[in-house]
Amino acid sequence: MHRPLVITEDQELLDDLLRVAAAAGVEIDVAHAAAHARPYWKHAPLVVVGADAADALAATGPPPRSGVLLVTRAPDDAEVWRRCVAVGAQALLRLPSEERRLVDEFAEASEPSARAGEAICVVGGRGGSGASVLAASLALWGSRRGLRSLLIDADPLGGGIDVVLGQEQATGARWPDIAEREGRVSFAALQKALPTFGELTVLSWHRGESPPIPPEAMRAVLGAAHRGCDLIVVDLPRHIGPAAAEALSRAASTLLLVPADVRGVLAASQVLIELRRHTSSIAAVARTGTLRPDVISASLGIPCAGALPDQRGLSEALNRGDAPSLTPRTPLARFCATYLTPRRPPPKPAKPPPPRTANPPDSPPNENAHHHVTEPSAPSPGGGERRRVAGRLGSLRIESACHRVGEPSVPSPGGGERRRVAGRSGSLTSESARHRLAGSPGLPLGESACRRVAEAPGFLMNETSRRATARTSWPLTPVTARHPTGRSSRRKVLAHFEEPR
């Protein structure tokens, strides 16, 4: 991946730019002369030009491009705007007053691609309702299905959501380590600093003194997550502080876990008053109890996102240090699948099959040429079966001749019976087939096939069919029904088997 490019000969300006880049968590390429910048000019995602190098760069005639900034440390320079136009810069930044914007520009240039992540806040209507377990399960289920997920623990008194995952010993930053961050943060840098397990990144609390989260830090983390994640799950405390309010205002939906009893509904109604001050997209999740989910939804005046029964063995698994079980039959997995299924990544489109091409006009015909010269291109009824009859009985391949000349494949009488004759090693398996053979001496069954049947009495495996075949008159007479075989092929067959007069 290409890095931002800085072009300057001013050492003091370069020190400021390196400090700003470090604050954004990105690495930069530095060109101390305008001529050295030409190989990087086209590919760098962002070009920062010092005012001291603007004239020399303009003299080299660089091709116009986007993402060029001119920076200066002089507060009032009459020539700076002329230099800005000369190098084709889109903006002029004065340091140190506009360092914050430069940090954002560096961070945005280092982001590989925006993902437009969706945030979900989870809050318990009463203590012990299972909000932390549900939040961890949502993030874990999404990460196992290919969603890049970030799990944020915004409850400083919750004991740490990394304990729910059994990862309290994982190395990485916690909230006190990044609480002083503000402004734009690169998600790549955030993911590198935090504990990460596959597609799941976790920002939790440590065990110790828990200072409040500044809203600026929450804003910076959520901003980076929205650009770099598919799914963001925030475990909120029941008391809504400034940081929790920042998360609620940026969330696409909020889940309120409600114990299914009278006291649980009353407690959830008090929390709901606080939530409605910051968001309107709230849904209830009913726990196991005496009240039905529709009663809870009607009492609180919010829709119900589903019911979450108690999961057997969950407390024992958490005490052992195991993450919540998300096998398909568990209540947590069923709820996560129902709620998060619309957020799955879209499947990759399948490659279209290669188009069929007709044979060239001068190419010799083949047995399957009817797929290219007849309309419609689907094979005619019984075509494959007729070919198998001809191949098994050793007759001339007269079917492909019909298709090569383009005659329509009209199914002859008794086509189904002939297919059964061919499909059962030559034996007649139905009464209707034996009746048609016995009662129709002129049955258009392919003259070569009839001849070989008559010559091989052991081929038809029952006496009735053998007697019916023996009654067929020889020499064969031409049939009046239009056989799918071409006229020329029919004459050849009849001439081959007809006795000389």
TrEMBL record:
Gene Ontology CC annotations of this record: cytoplasmic side of plasma membrane; cytosol
Biased composition (Pro residues): 343-364
GO molecular function, one term: ATP hydrolysis activity
Biased composition, class Basic residues, residue ranges: 484-494
Gene Ontology biological-process annotations: negative regulation of cell division
Chain segments carrying region Disordered: 339-443, 461-501
InterPro entries, sorted: P-loop_NTPase (IPR027417), ParA/MinD_ATPase (IPR050625), Rv3660c (IPR022521), Rv3660c_N (IPR059050)
The organism's place on the tree of life at top rank: Bacteria
Domain Rv3660c-like CheY-like N-terminal stretches: 7-114
Protein name per Swiss-Prot or TrEMBL: Secretion/DNA translocation related CpaE-like protein
Organism, as annotated: Sphaerisporangium krabiense
